[in-house]
Structure formats: C-alpha cells, structure tokens
Amino acid sequence: SLGKKKAKIIIVGLDNSGKTTLINYLKPPKETLSEVTPTVGFKVESFKQDKINFTCFDMSGQGIYRELWPEYYSEAQGVIFVVDSADKLRIAVAKNELEMMFEDPGIRDRPVPILFFANKKDLPYALTESEIAEQFELDNISDRDWHIEASNALTGEGVTEGINWLGAKLP
Ligand code: GTP
Ligand code: MG
C-alpha cells in the first residue's frame, strides 16, 4: 500500500559464512527456528526493517549451489555479500566468487548497492572490516555504492546498522 516501501534483495557468500543466521536475526522471533542448518538451494525470506518490507533470497553458499546465484541477480535491488572474517583459508575463494559476481551481467550492468558483512567478528583472529576491504580491493569499486559492516549474527551486533545502510540506498 501507499507509503510502504518494498525491496527485493539477495544474500550470497560462501557456505558457513552466516547468511541464514543473519536473516534469522532480522525475522520475527516466532518464525525463527532455534537451529540453523546449511541452506539447500535457496530460501525466500521476508522481514521488515526500518519501514521497509524486505524479500530476501537466502542462497546456499555450498559449491554445488553457487551457480544458482546469477539466476537471481537481475531481480535484486540490492546485494548482501557475507564473509566469515575468521575463515582466512577461504578468503581467496570468497574473493573469486565476488569477482565472478561483478562480471555477471545481472550485477555488472546494474549499479545496485552492495553491503558486505564481515561476519563472525566475535571469533578470535577475525579479520577487521578494513582488512577484508583491503583483501577484496573494495576501494576499486567505483560504479556503485558499497559498505562493509562487521557483524556477529548470533547476537545481532552490526546487523541492523548494515541493513539500514542498504535500506537507505534502495529506490
Ligand atoms: P550455507 O547455507 O551453507 O550457505 O551457510 P550460511 O552462510 O547460511 O551459514 P549459517 O547461517 O548456516 O551459519 C553457519 C554456522 O556459523 C552456524 O553454526 C552459525 O551458528 C555460525 N555463525 C553464524 N554467524 C556467526 C557469528 O557471527 N559468530 C559465530 N561465532 N558463529 C556464527
Ligand atoms: Mg544458509
């Protein structure tokens, strides 16, 4: 109805980075399952934040399902890319997925905003936002708005701050 903003977004990132846990934090409590399990394929979720009704495609990050991500890029008004800040061994794998995303026509040709969550900030030796930004060479992004927020999806730290940034960038 009038005055109600709607937004369709997509959340991607490697398996185990915390995407579903992040979305669960944003959902109404009664709709949240206590145990989060690896996503199979993808799941469409809804939540309301800062007067925006979000529809979110929660994609599986497992290797065999990553090829599904591009199928939904062109519909998304915004992207959330989640990184496990403590998974240093796979930072190069995550960067490679990010580069492929930027090369996909569904993203390349549309200047949708991108929110990065440097998730699992609570873990020892987690990389900081600026360390991840440096690894991912985010300063080279010049064709769209982007933002990186450190988060703990288990407690919600940083989560609303990040989503509110994204919400403000949406049409
Ligand atoms: P796929 O669906 O397989 O792509 O994974 P996902 O990115 O949705 O990850 P999921 O939300 O299933 O979380 C994976 C594991 O990380 C779970 O055991 C979560 O409890 C844990 N986890 C998520 N966020 C955090 C965090 O901020 N800190 C810590 N310590 N653990 C987290
Ligand atoms: Mg998941």
Automatic annotation (TrEMBL):
<dbReference type="Pfam" id="PF00025">
    <property type="entry name" value="Arf"/>
</dbReference>
<dbReference type="GO" id="GO:0003924">
    <property type="term" value="F:GTPase activity"/>
</dbReference>
<comment type="similarity">
    <text>Belongs to the small GTPase superfamily. Arf family.</text>
</comment>
<keyword id="KW-0460">Magnesium</keyword>
<dbReference type="InterPro" id="IPR005225">
    <property type="entry name" value="Small_GTP-bd"/>
</dbReference>
<dbReference type="GO" id="GO:0005525">
    <property type="term" value="F:GTP binding"/>
</dbReference>
<keyword id="KW-0547">Nucleotide-binding</keyword>
<dbReference type="InterPro" id="IPR006689">
    <property type="entry name" value="Small_GTPase_ARF/SAR"/>
</dbReference>
<dbReference type="GO" id="GO:0046872">
    <property type="term" value="F:metal ion binding"/>
</dbReference>
<feature type="binding site">
    <location>
        <begin position="13"/>
        <end position="20"/>
    </location>
    <ligand>
        <name>GTP</name>
    </ligand>
</feature>
<keyword id="KW-0342">GTP-binding</keyword>
<dbReference type="InterPro" id="IPR024156">
    <property type="entry name" value="Small_GTPase_ARF"/>
</dbReference>
<feature type="binding site">
    <location>
        <position position="61"/>
    </location>
    <ligand>
        <name>GTP</name>
    </ligand>
</feature>
<keyword id="KW-0479">Metal-binding</keyword>
<dbReference type="InterPro" id="IPR027417">
    <property type="entry name" value="P-loop_NTPase"/>
</dbReference>
<feature type="binding site">
    <location>
        <begin position="119"/>
        <end position="122"/>
    </location>
    <ligand>
        <name>GTP</name>
    </ligand>
</feature>
<feature type="binding site">
    <location>
        <position position="39"/>
    </location>
    <ligand>
        <name>Mg(2+)</name>
    </ligand>
</feature>
<feature type="binding site">
    <location>
        <position position="20"/>
    </location>
    <ligand>
        <name>Mg(2+)</name>
    </ligand>
</feature>
<protein>
    <recommendedName>
        <fullName>ADP-ribosylation factor-like protein 6</fullName>
    </recommendedName>
</protein>
